[in-house]
Specification:
The complex is a heterodimer of chains A (about 160) and B (about 290). Chain A is built from one helix and no strands. Chain A has about 160 residues and is an all-alpha fold. Chain A has one domain. Chain A is rod-shaped. The longest helix of chain B has about 35 residues. Classes of the chains: A mainly alpha (about 160), B mainly alpha (about 290).
Chain lengths: ~160, ~290
């Protein structure tokens, strides 16, 4: 007995303490720390994997957004191109139409000129022909008149005879 | 296994048990009891009769039990470190899961209670393992010879009051170290406010484990109580109080550690009073409104 109640012995308390300190050190080095380190390693491994997956997702979302933006820009570009083409086609059509109109007018005017020319020619030739015919007729008439006059004269002469 | 085979096995098992019981009764009667139950119980409390020799020193059997428990735990840890931990995989197997759950339990307990938790986690892990294994150790009934040449069954290390005082006081010192780490000199004052803590921690542990030891001693002392009852008293109660005591000490240690290491300043008293007044006013104004409604 040490004099303390309940047989409390400081030496034995210290021996218990010594024993527990060794146990604490051994358990910490051999079991607690390695297992906790492994758990931390796994946590960081999965966190890393998670962040990588998140990054990949983020990247995919970004590329999706970029793709969508590109698609949209393509659409807009296509729309603009279509509008431009339509405009060009319209212009070209207008131009062609104008050209056709011009051509048509030219053709018409040419035709008209030609027709006028032909008409003039026809008129001229007709006039010429008429003139010729008239001349001929006149000549004939003149001739006929002279013949008939001659004949008449003859007849008259004959009668007179 | 068919029904007949099961029946045969049950009969054989009952016969073996009967033979053991008869043997125990026949051989038990021959030897005179060296100690009365009063002596056994007195010794369980005071450890003033049976002493064992440890490295030439006369010590309580609890200390020898503590050394053996530490040895068992260290060998187990060594086996785990050499054979299992290097083979740990990202997807854990059954044994790895058990180890990780136990370590994670104490690690999370320390993290949940204090911001400064590195050392606390390691301490409560060791303390929890020591208390749990030490309490279960009494189930093994490891025999030792006293200095007087009497064979005794080694008790739980913490049913020795010196062991319990060591654990209680060490826990208190750890709590104080948390106070110093978190609040400096102020932390010492905070810890000293809980001056009854080392005594309460020590004697709670001692009382709980001693009561277990006394009940077990009582049950095993009388051969008439040594059948069937020890299955409940010896195994289930020991298992239960091993778990409870390990949990209680580690939980209390981490709770007090968190409390004294917390450096958040307490709100000034004036504000608290004002708040209380506001609450009172609110309730006063709410009551007529409720009555009107």
């Amino acid at each position: 007995m040490t004099g303390l109640p309940l047989n409390i012995d400081p030496q034995q308390i210290l021996l218990h303490l010594f024993n527990f300190t060794i146990l604490f050190g051994a358990l910490y080095i051999l079991l607690y720390k390695p297992v906790r380190d492994f758990m931390a390693k796994r946590t960081s491994y999965y966190a890393d994997m998670d962040s990588k997956a998140e990054d990949a997702l983020h990247e995919a979302e970004e590329s999706k957004a970029a793709y969508e933006a590109k698609v949209q820009s393509f659409d807009e570009e296509a729309r603009a191109e279509r509008a431009k083409m339509n405009k060009e086609v319209a212009e070209q059509r207008e131009r062609q139409l104008a050209q056709a109109k011009e051509d048509a007018e030219k053709i018409v005017s040419d035709a008209r000129t030609e027709a006028n020319r032909e008409k003039d020619e026809i008129i001229a030739s007709a006039q010429k022909e008429i003139t010729e015919m008239v001349t001929d007729a006149m000549e004939k008439l003149t001739l006929e008149q002279s013949a008939s006059d001659a004949f008449d004269q003859f007849l008259d002469a004959a009668e007179a005879n | 296994m068919s029904k007949q085979e099961r029946r045969k096995a049950a009969v054989v098992f009952a016969l073996i048990a009967l033979v053991f019981m008869v043997g125990a009764i026949l051989t038990g009667g021959g030897t005179a009891k060296e100690e009365t139950i009063q002596e056994v119980m007195r010794d369980a409390v005071l450890h003033d009769i049976n002493k064992v020799s440890l490295l030439g020193m006369e010590v309580n059997p609890g200390l020898l039990a503590g050394v053996i428990v530490s040895g068992i735990l260290i060998v187990f840890a060594l086996i785990c470190r050499i054979f299992f931990i290097p083979k740990f995989t990202m997807v854990p197997g059954k044994f790895q899961l058990v180890l990780e759950t136990v370590v994670g339990l104490f690690d999370n307990m320390s993290k949940g209670n204090s911001k400064i938790h590195g050392f606390l986690g390691a301490y409560i892990f060791a303390a929890g393992a020591y208390i749990f294994t030490g309490t279960l150790f009494e189930l093994l009934g490891v025999q030792a010879v006293t200095t007087e040449g009497v064979s005794i069954s080694l008790p739980a290390p913490l049913s020795d009051i010196n062991g319990a005082i060591m654990m209680g006081c060490l826990s208190y010192l750890i709590i104080m170290s948390g106070g110093i780490a978190g609040n400096g000199v102020k932390g010492i004052g905070k810890t000293l406010k809980e001056y009854s803590l080392p005594i309460s921690l020590s004697f709670r542990l001692f009382g709980a484990l001693l009561s277990g030891a006394l009940v077990t001693e009582l049950v095993y002392y009388y051969s008439s109580l040594s059948y069937v009852l020890p299955v409940l008293v010896g195994v289930l109660f020991t298992l239960l109080h091993a778990l409870i005591q390990a949990y209680v000490l580690t939980m209390l240690t981490s709770l007090f550690y968190g409390q004294v290491s917390d450096d958040t300043p307490a709100p000034p008293k004036e504000k608290r009073r004002r708040k209380n007044k506001k609450v009172i006013n609110k309730t006063e104004t709410a009551e007529p409104a409720e009555a009107a409604a």
